[in-house]
Design brief:
The chain is built from 48 helices and 10 strands. The protein has about 950 residues and is mainly alpha-helical. Among the domains are: about 10-200, Rossmann fold; about 205-275; about 280-360, Arc Repressor Mutant, subunit A (Orthogonal Bundle), CATH 1.10.10; about 365-440; about 900-970, Arc Repressor Mutant, subunit A (Orthogonal Bundle). Helix 20 runs parallel beside helix 23 (about 485-500) and helix 32 (about 660-680) runs antiparallel to helix 33 (about 680-700). The longest helix is centred in the middle third of the chain and has 19 residues, at about 545-565. It is globular. It starts with 11 loop residues before the first helix and ends with a helix.
């Protein structure tokens, strides 16, 4: 946070923007500012100015920095920043945080009572936001997060929430990010594009600015007092980097090539040299001035990383307190290190070049010895290795050449990250552990790593690498791991195969796991095998697959309860809920609640996400509500679960098709399909292709539909859960839009056959809705058949319910219950409100039956349907509606320009474009002559239009008609 330069040069516009942002935060209009630039360009120096300005204005400042020591550790910069609240001496127990206080235990150890919920990143983000607002106490607050490019994915997930919600708070978030490719830079640029953040890019200094900076550092009154050759060399070698200007200048002075005499500064000798070598020599000369003990101290610090804790450094070197502080103060004075505020007892090197320079004067053996001593010190000072101490110790053990110990420590850190739902960090840490243990002599440790790494890779979408690890299991089979460990590994690989949609591979792994367990039965491990086998059974073609899956899941759930296996219990209840959904939604909901409660009680964020996703799916099927699915997707995105994100995306594509958002569905399907195909995520590929087929069918494009279904077949579509949807939502609908009901019934008959051979847990294929309506209209289904279907839970799902109600209306009409039949149609139209295509297709289908049995308003229904299908260029259905109107003796109007502007109610009453023009003028209570003058028609024609309007709208008189017109205008 410090610089040798007495003042900032060339950053006036950025300082002005920061001053304005701080002022707005104090007035309750917070926001986000990213300082973006290459290393050494002055981001930290500018951030220091912002801190000074905030403190000078009475604002509270919280500071945190992402770690560059070892792999990223979840939430490190946020935890560091928030912990400073507890060092301020002000009471925090009186802050009004409500239910969000326990959630903050994930970040603040002082509040971790062991009972916090395993909440999503959205909830955690809201908790952090409320803490920042509450702790501001009217002062305004600056939250500074440095080196965000090194931040872990979980920190970025929380920050994304904060970015979108800081505008009306007294909090300013200031973050520094390098221009190198990183997720943090993507986050900053995305926030700027949507107007949620300001991005201040720090360009290198211009030549005049470099000259001004050099003059200021040398105490010269103007750049002219500095030798021109010095200015040229500093400009050419620094490329405008303020840090390099400072370092090169100090190197010149230290080397004696730039000296100060009675007549000012002058150059002595050759200024030309290799920049990196020159910098290294200059840095080492400054270090040499600290003496042998100072060199030893900083060398040990360099092995610890760019940031280093004093407690560990002192234990490593054995230096007493007085000498330690003396050398650190000297290092600060020499501009080599600085206190890593606000972290207590931590220091950091000013630049990574200092660390590199120190490494040049150490032999590999010396570095390894220091790393070994550092690891020992960390383990002695922090025996349980909490938080990022585990990753630090792992990195040091690896540097020391102790690969086995390093691998075990990385495995421990990775397992913790996975348990916390930090998938990105888990994959990084576990991958390092696997690499270190792959060639070692500890198969048990390596097997434990694979147990965690396999599901982490599957969740993050790296199926290729996860399945490649199957080869490693063959190498482990001959080792002395024991049956339970080997069976667990095969089970984990089976779960990966299930997630990727490769049920054959998964079933082979299950067989292998059972073979291994046969020699030494273990009920707890067998439960994990059973629940994974249940998921595979549900996807494996077979007439009894749902019953078999349910039996396996039930057995796993019972065993999990006896042995205290929360993950297995959650997985079992989630599958049982899916199967139960067909017979009893309340039973399904109760099972998911049980899974959610178990996941929250045992802090299992991934299992909580899965249960939330299934709960959202149930709500979508029941009422077409996507709120729960969107929330689950957001949670999956924060956790990094690629499979769930794209699974939900596929459902949302199909939902857009059913709702008539064809352009949105097409765009979303194309984008999603490109990703899931690349990831080889077969279930998601099949679902999206099914949705594409349904999209083409709803547009009446049979060629495109068949192409999508052909692609579907290539992804193991035959016998899959998604196959019935291709017939029910695609082929049957396409046939109906071609006015071929016999073909539509045949396609739905194929669905029934498929369901008999391979029952699915997807329920929108028409077996409990559309097929009933078509059979009732064809006279092959009676009241008994209707009651048989309506007694099921599937028939009560919103998409199916609209067709069931229409079928009931037709049956009631035949039974002479005209009023009840009409009421059923109104109920069906209400249910079908989100689904315009199905709504109008249903009206077209029941109109003839209504006319034949004398109930409802078939003319209005046909008019509404005819207009809808004409507007969407579906000629077969539009022409059929016109023919139906003629059979009913109703006039068929030509489609003139302006038809779409007629309100739906008036259009169904047969109001023409010209009549609607007359109707609108009646709001002004004009006479027939005045209307005729306005529309350039004769008074007699105007009179006829008024009379026709009174008849079609059922108005009692002209005054009533005028009142209706006025009501429409004000609506």
């Amino acid at each position: 946070m410090r610089s040798h330069a007495p003042s900032l040069v060339g950053r006036d516009s950025q300082l002005t923007a920061l001053d304005r942002a701080l002022s707005e935060a104090r007035q309750g209009r917070g926001g986000v500012v990213f300082l973006v630039g290459e290393a050494g360009v002055g981001k930290s120096r500018l951030a220091a100015e912002a801190v000074g300005g905030a403190l000078g204005a009475g604002m509270r400042v919280l500071r945190g920095r992402s770690s560059t020591t070892g792999p990223a550790v979840p939430f490190r910069p946020l935890t560091e920043a928030l912990m400073s609240l507890f060092r301020s001496g002000e009471p925090l127990d009186d802050l009004v945080l409500g239910p969000y206080r326990p959630v903050l235990g994930r970040l603040i150890p002082d509040w971790d009572n062991g009972e916090r919920e395993s909440s999503s990143m959205v909830i955690l983000g809201e908790a952090v936001l409320r803490l920042l607002i509450a702790a501001a106490r009217g002062q305004g607050k600056l939250l500074l997060l440095e080196d965000l490019d090194d931040a872990d994915p979980e920190t970025l997930g929380v920050l994304e929430y904060l970015i979108d919600n800081l505008e009306y708070t007294p909090v300013l978030l200031l973050a520094t990010v390098r221009t190198d490719f990183s997720d943090a830079l993507d986050l900053a640029q995305s926030a700027r594009r949507r107007g949620a953040a300001t991005l201040l890019e720090l360009a290198p200094l211009t030549r005049p600015q470099v000259h001004d900076m050099v003059a200021a550092q040398l105490g010269a009154n103007s750049p002219d007092e500095v030798p021109a050759e010095v200015m040229l060399r500093l400009w050419e070698d620094s490329a405008g980097s303020p840090y390099l200007v400072e370092e090169l200048l100090q190197s010149m002075i230290g080397a004696g090539t730039l000296v100060q005499g009675t007549e000012g500064w002058r150059a002595v000798g050759d200024l030309r040299s290799d920049v990196s070598s020159s910098l290294a020599r200059g840095i080492l000369r400054r270090i040499d001035r600290l003496g042998a003990q100072g060199l030893t101290l900083l060398s040990a610090a360099a092995v610890l990383g760019k940031r280093f804790p004093l407690t560990v450094l002192q234990r490593m070197t054995g230096i007493d307190d007085r000498a330690l502080l003396s050398h650190l103060h000297a290092g600060v004075a020499a501009r080599l290190v600085l206190p890593d505020e606000p972290a207590p007892d931590w220091y950091s090197f000013r630049h990574s070049l200092t660390v590199e320079a120190l490494f040049t004067q150490m032999t590999p053996g010396q570095r390894a010895d220091l790393a070994r001593r550092g690891a020992t010190a960390v383990e002695e000072l922090h025996p349980e290795l909490p938080g990022d101490w585990c990753a630090l110790a792992a990195g040091l053990r690896r540097e020391a050449g102790d690969h086995a110990a390093a691998g075990r420590l990385f495995a421990e850190a990775g397992g913790r990250a996975l348990a916390a739902g930090a998938l990105g960090s888990a994959v990084t840490l576990l991958s390092r552990a696997e690499d270190l243990l792959a060639s070692g002599s500890d198969p048990a440790a390596r097997a434990e790593v694979l147990e965690h790494l396999l599901p982490a890779l599957a969740e993050s979408g790296d199926f290729a690498r996860a399945l490649d690890l199957a080869e490693h299991l063959h190498a482990l089979d001959g080792s002395e791991l024991g049956p339970a460990r080997l069976a667990t590994l095969h089970t984990r690989l089976a779960k990966v195969a299930h997630t990727a949609g490769r049920w054959s591979d998964g079933n082979r792994q299950i067989v292998r796991a059972r073979e291994v367990l046969a020699a030494a039965p273990d009920e707890a491990v067998a439960a994990a095998v059973d629940v994974t086998a249940a998921y595979l059974a549900l996807d494996t073609p077979g007439s009894d697959r749902t019953q078999h899956a349910e039996k396996l899941a039930r057995s796993a759930a019972d065993t999990a309860e006896r042995y205290g296996l929360p993950v297995v219990a959650c997985q079992a209840w989630e599958l049982l809920a899916t199967v139960a959904r067909e017979r009893d939604p309340e039973e399904s909901a109760a099972m998911l609640e049980r899974a959610l409660a178990t996941a929250e009680r045992h802090r299992l964020p991934l299992q909580r996400m899965y249960a939330a996703t299934r709960t959202g799916g149930n709500a979508w099927l029941a009422e077409g509500d996507t709120t729960g699915l969107l929330a689950a997707r957001e949670e999956a995105l924060r956790l990094g679960s690629v499979s769930i994100v794209h699974t939900v995306d596929g459902i949302l594509v199909l939902d857009a098709v059913l709702r008539g958002d064809y352009d949105g569905a097409r765009t979303a399907a194309d984008g999603c399909l490109a990703v899931v195909r690349r990831l080889r995520l077969a279930p998601a590929v099949r679902y999206v292709l099914t949705a594409q087929a349904a999209l083409a069918a709803h547009l009446g494009d049979r060629t495109a539909m068949e192409a999508a279904l052909a692609a579907f077949a290539e992804w193991d579509g035959s016998g899959s859960q998604e196959e019935p949807l291709g017939f029910g939502l695609a082929r049957a609908f396409c046939a109906l839009l071609e006015e071929d009901r016999d073909l539509a019934r045949a396609e739905l008959g194929a669905v029934l056959t498929l369901e008999a051979d391979n029952p699915s847990t997807y329920h929108l294929s028409g077996t409990h809705g559309l097929v009933l309506l078509l059979d009732v209209l064809a006279g092959t289904a009676d009241r008994a058949r209707h009651e048989e279907i309506t007694s099921t839970a599937v028939a009560r799902m919103r998409w199916n319910r609209q067709f069931v109600l229409l079928a009931d209306a037709v049956l009631l009409g035949r039974e002479g219950e005209a009023d009840r039949a009409a009421d059923r149609v109104e109920a069906a139209l209400s249910v079908a409100e989100p689904y315009p295509m199905a709504r109008h297709l249903g009206l077209r289908l029941v109109a003839d039956a209504a006319h034949q049995d004398g109930w409802g308003d078939p003319v209005a229904w046909l008019r509404s349907a005819e207009h809808y299908f004409h507007e969407r260029d579906t000629p077969a259905v539009a022409n059929a509606c016109r023919a139906g109107l003629r059979r009913l003796g109703a006039p068929v109007h030509q489609h003139r320009s302006g038809t779409s502007g007629i309100p739906e109610q008036l259009r169904t009453q047969g109001v023409t474009v010209r009549e609607f023009e007359v109707f609108r003028l009646l709001a002004e209570r004009l006479s027939n002559k005045d209307i005729a003058d306005r529309l350039f028609i004769s008074p007699r024609t105007a009179e006829k239009h008024v009379a026709s309007l009174m008849t079609k709208t059922g108005s009692a008189n002209r005054a009533d008609l005028c009142a209706r017109s006025a009501a429409l205008r004000t609506a």
